[in-house]
Design a protein that fits this description.
By secondary structure, this protein is mostly helical.
């Protein structure tokens, strides 16, 4: 054995770099895991149903609550504003003749409702076409109400209100037909009897409808 010391063999350059390389930080792996978990939760977690936008307050009320609100608004003269509430009551209680007839009256009153604008009374509805559509819808609802009513007094109320609607448009002869029908169904009503006499006087004097 010679006296020369044996040098330790140097590791290869690649191995030296591998041992000297910096380890990846633990928080980076955790961050990647959280991102993946969040992505999967969005794909799998049940989506919440979006809240319906533009839903009218009347749609959130029961039939009774909607009907009472419609009565309150109509009693204050806000017939057009009352329509969605009566419509909601009718949708929820389609077999109620009272709801149908009240909706009919509100449609008719909305067609006649006015507001003061620049010192002049003008219709709250946008056009005569809209008003005609309201009147037609009013008559349709009244016919449905008549088909649902059970008692003679109920039919009398419907016929009387239909006569009032026709009378307001100057159709006195058609109104008289409804008034007489109401009187036959409810002969003890002084209000109905007075409407019959008034319509008969107007026609006898050559008023509208003749």
């Amino acid at each position: 054995m010679s006296g020369r010391k044996t040098r330790a063999r140097r590791p290869a350059r690649g191995a030296r770099q591998a041992r000297g390389g910096r380890a990846r930080p633990w928080w980076l792996l955790l961050l990647v895991g959280l991102v993946l978990l969040g992505y999967l939760s969005l794909r799998v977690w049940p989506k919440r149903r979006p809240v319906e936008a533009g839903l009218h307050p009347a749609a959130r009320l029961s039939a009774e609550e909607a009907y009472k609100t419609g009565l309150t608004l109509g009693g204050a003269g806000h017939h057009l504003e009352a329509l969605p509430y009566y419509a909601s009551a009718v949708r929820q209680a389609p077999d109620s003749w009272t709801a149908r007839q009240s909706y009919s009256s509100a449609l008719h009153n909305s067609a006649l409702e006015t507001r003061l604008h620049l010192g002049k009374a003008e219709p709250v509805t946008r056009s005569s076409v809209e008003r005609i559509a309201m009147v037609n819808a009013s008559m349709r609802e009244s016919r449905i109400a008549d088909s649902l009513a059970q008692q003679p007094a109920d039919h009398a109320v419907i016929a009387f209100q239909r006569g009032q609607a026709l009378h307001s448009f100057g159709l006195v002869d058609d109104a008289l037909v409804e008034f007489r029908r109401a009187e036959a169904l409810y002969p003890s009503s002084p209000v109905i009897a007075a409407a019959v006499r008034d319509a008969e006087r107007r026609l006898a004097s050559g008023g509208p409808g003749e």
